[in-house]
Write a structure and sequence with these properties.
three-stranded antiparallel β-sheet
């Protein structure tokens, strides 16, 4: 049995279980990415908050640089650098939402 959710229900599901994993804006970016993925593949994605929190991260630009030891010459093109290594849902001026690797 499946239920279609909108971005508000998607956010509420995360806020109920894992409120500190993603910002509201980050959840909107992840929701839109997953919706686009469903459209591209024709396969429905199950809303499993815990699994999504284990697979995806939202980190500040400085944390990505630090945690993944991004070379200095790639720090200005951080999303491009990440995209060469993993799936990137998108980003804001403050953070990037990407699949953990």
């Amino acid at each position: 049995m499946k239920k279609t959710v909108n971005v508000y229900e998607f956010r509420d599901a995360f806020m109920a279980v894992r409120p500190d994993n993603f910002s509201y804006q980050g959840l909107e970016i992840l929701f839109e990415y997953l919706e686009d993925l469903e459209g591209a593949t024709g396969e429905e994605i199950e809303l499993d908050v815990i699994a999504l929190c284990c697979e995806w991260s939202e980190l500040s630009h400085s944390d990505v640089i630090s945690y993944y030891d991004v070379p200095e010459e790639n720090q200005d093109n951080l999303i491009e650098w990440l995209s060469e290594r993993t799936l990137v849902a998108g980003g804001t001026t403050e953070s990037i939402i990407f699949m953990d690797f």
